[in-house]
From TrEMBL:
It comes from Aspergillus ibericus CBS 121593. Its cofactor is Zn(2+). GO terms for molecular function: D-xylulose reductase activity; L-iditol 2-dehydrogenase (NAD+) activity; zinc ion binding. Xylitol dehydrogenase which catalyzes the conversion of xylitol to D-xylulose. Xylose is a major component of hemicelluloses such as xylan. Most fungi utilize D-xylose via three enzymatic reactions, xylose reductase (XR), xylitol dehydrogenase (XDH), and xylulokinase, to form xylulose 5-phosphate, which enters pentose phosphate pathway. The lineage of its organism: Eukaryota, Fungi, Dikarya, Ascomycota, Pezizomycotina. Belongs to the zinc-containing alcohol dehydrogenase family. Pathway: Carbohydrate degradation; L-arabinose degradation via L-arabinitol; D-xylulose 5-phosphate from L-arabinose (fungal route): step 4/5. This is D-xylulose reductase.
């Protein structure tokens, strides 16, 4: 196959096929040979349920994947920042840059966004060759592996979440969810000056990992909390655990909800102080039972996070290049291109932190990043 690709035709129906090779059609195009694609929770949902907002069907299949790294294969005549052979992290969606939403500084919400792996919109990165405009390709230094570069996408989400909700020096931040995005939110909040960062998750092992990468006993990490699952009075117990008094309007300055679970949303509102800020980062059911009355009574600022906006991806790459975060520790499994289903099921079982799938049709040297 010239361009082997992994396509999903519906729930539980993945097929490997040869897709057309991408061609340079714009002066700023870059063709990338994919090295690794990371598995995201949305990939698991697609695999099990056949899409989220747009259905995946036999008549509307989609190449999976959007968290990716690779090596520049070819460039358009107007590309001046990259050359073939450069190692890059991919920001996997590009906007029109012409509409009013783009011009207002919210290109991530562009109605014409071409985001990798979105059914009916754009095929994904679980392929050998992928095309992207040059300004969405981030060159990485030799000190960063291509495996680590796949993490720039979830790190970009975390940067957007923390920046948009306004985390600043001295704040107390509670993050619900200790998956990859949640732990990155904890790390980025610390970089933005948070005085205390607390993690909440049903999985004690993942909270243990969060504590390790945050640095047990180091500045910023306040500890983890595992709910008992009853829901009744859980918010109050979280506040008591971290020395806050609900009756006095005390609580966290910021809550970042990174699970998409309704119960966590409700708890998040409960543990915010009066006048606190709530950021919904995790994607779950589109309609939930949410304590809007409490939001009003406590005058909570409620915000949403969708992917990443201007400067977010670049700042995440900067943090990574500067060695702020132990990225290698997030990668717990790498599978062959032909074993994508194994990767999705590994993530579905909650095993490890981040599973990667090698690029289509050819191996890559983990140490050098060279084919």
């Amino acid at each position: 196959m010239a361009n082997p690709s992994c396509l999903l035709y519906g729930p539980g129906d993945a097929r490997y096929e040869d897709r057309p090779l991408p061609r340079i059609t714009s002066p700023t195009d870059v063709i990338i040979r994919i090295a690794y694609t990371g598995v995201c929770g949305s990939d698991v949902h697609f695999w099990h349920h056949g899409g989220i907002k747009r259905p995946i069907t036999p008549s509307n299949p989609i190449t999976m994947g959007h968290e990716a790294s690779g090596i520049v294969h070819a460039i358009g005549p107007a590309v001046t920042t990259l050359v073939p052979g450069d190692r890059i992290a991919l920001e996997p969606g590009y906007a029109c840059h012409r509409c009013m939403i783009c011009k207002s500084g919210h290109y991530n919400l562009c109605p014409r966004m071409k985001f990798a792996g979105v059914p009916g919109i754009c095929h994904g990165t679980l392929t050998r060759f992928f095309k992207l405009p040059a300004d969405y390709c981030y060159k990485i230094p030799d000190t960063m592996g291509l495996e680590e570069a796949t993490l720039m996408e979830p790190l970009g989400v975390a940067v957007h979440s923390v920046r948009a909700v306004g985390v600043g020096p001295g704040m107390r931040v509670c993050v619900f969810g200790a998956g990859t995005v949640g732990v990155f939110c904890m790390l980025v909040a610390r970089e933005f000056g948070a005085e205390q960062v607390v993690g909440v998750d049903m999985n004690a092992r993942k909270l243990g990992f969060a504590g390790e990468v945050m640095g047990e006993g180091a500045g910023g990490w306040g500890g983890g909390y595992v709910p008992d699952g009853t829901g009744e009075g859980e918010g109050k117990r979280i506040l008591e655990r971290f020395g806050m008094e609900e009756s006095e309007g005390d609580g966290f300055d910021v809550v970042i909800e990174a699970t998409g679970a309704e119960a966590c949303m409700r708890m998040g509102v409960e543990v915010l102080r009066v006048g606190g800020r709530f950021m919904q980062t995790g994607l779950g059911r589109r309609n939930v039972n949410f304590p809007m009355g409490t939001v009003a009574e406590k005058e909570i600022t409620l915000k949403g996070c969708f992917r990443y906006g201007p400067g977010d991806f670049a700042l995440g790459v900067q943090f990574a290049v500067e060695g702020r975060f132990p990225l290698k520790r997030f990668i717990t499994k790498i599978v062959a291109f032909e074993d994508a289903v194994e990767a999705w099921e590994t993530t579905a079982r909650g095993e490890g932190m981040k599973t990667l799938i090698r690029g289509g049709g050819s191996g890559v040297d983990d140490a050098s990043g060279k084919y």
